[in-house]
Amino acid sequence: MQRILDRHDDAVLISDGGEFGQWAQACLTARRRTTNGPAGAIGAAVPFAVAAKLAFPDAPVVAMSGDGSFGFHMGEYDTALRSRAPFIAVVGNDARWNAEHQIQIKAYGAARAVGCELLPTRYDLVAAGLGGHGENVTRAAGLAGALDRAVASQRPACVNVAIEGVAAPDLSRRR
User: Fold this and answer.
1) Is 100 in the active site?
2) Average per-residue pLDDT in the chain?
3) What is the CATH number of domain 2-13+21-165?
4) Which among 62, 24, 15 has a CA at the least distance from the CA of 43?
5) pTM
């Protein structure tokens, strides 16, 4: 992702909530950047991406979202298509509400973590079903090509990436 962001000084990075969003905030940089904020609200990446593309039509817009967060507003691909607002969403898919899972592990231990499972939904197929571009990535080696095809599509795109559900870095120590 950083490669795409670095190609354009005006690129917009949107980072949604959850563990995946924390990884994106820790690892990616862009001059124009919107995050879920200190309250930790989740689910706004897709509508924020549509709005950013309408505000900055010549800038590439990249939204990073966990699978749980993405599920809130994935139907907005229809809005993006009707508004001619192409962007790329990268969905980190670990089939779990991983932020809550990590909290439960810390508080109660792994054996008592409950209610955090999601299905391994193919969000790329949801975007494609609404008329956007979809890519599914199951191995790191396939990510660069999938991102390049998403950019080339010039449509709202979803790159669904299978990830391991691990704890995010502690951003409070970042300076």
Assistant:
1) yes
2) 92
3) 3.40.50.970
4) 15
5) 0.91
